[in-house]
Design brief:
The N and C termini lie far apart (40 Å). 0% of the residues lie in helices and 50% in strands. The chain is mostly beta strands and 122 residues long. The strands form two sheets. Strands 2, 4, 5, 6, 9, 10 and 11 form a seven-stranded mixed β-sheet that branches. A four-stranded antiparallel β-sheet has the order 1-3-8-7, with no helix packed on it.
């Protein structure tokens, strides 16, 4: 059983930066690929990107590629989402999730955090 807890959300001005953290407990963190998702009001939960269990591979959707960076520290059992050049349309609740495979499919993620709100003002 894995528990995930996001932190670092808040209010930021357009063009600014923010880094989210997701701390894991339980299980073996290094066995899991980690993904980041977001959900804006009235919209479906959107996959943003993920990182392999060892941190050697990453993937990002086009809308965040070049602006967002996923990294992980398996000693600290923490995954990060560094967000730069933020836009108002980035406003959403951001979630981290753990998967035993390297997948973009939401159903492939077994454990989810509670989410953290990111609000980007114009």
């Amino acid at each position: 059983q894995v528990q995930l807890a996001e932190s670092g959300g808040g209010l930021v001005q357009a063009g600014g930066s923010l880094t989210l953290s997701c701390a894991a407990s339980g299980g073996t963190f290094s066995n899991y690929a980690m993904g980041w998702f977001r959900q804006a009001p009235g919209k479906e939960r959107e996959f943003l990107g993920h990182i392999s269990s060892g941190g050697g591979s990453t993937y990002y959707v086009d809308s965040v590629k070049g602006r967002f960076t996923i990294s992980r520290d398996n000693v600290k059992s923490t995954v990060y989402l560094q967000m730069n050049s933020l836009k108002p349309e980035d406003t959403a609740v951001y979630y981290c999730a753990a998967s035993r495979g390297f997948t973009r499919y939401r159903g492939g993620y077994d454990y989810w955090g509670q989410g953290t709100q990111v609000t980007v003002s114009s």
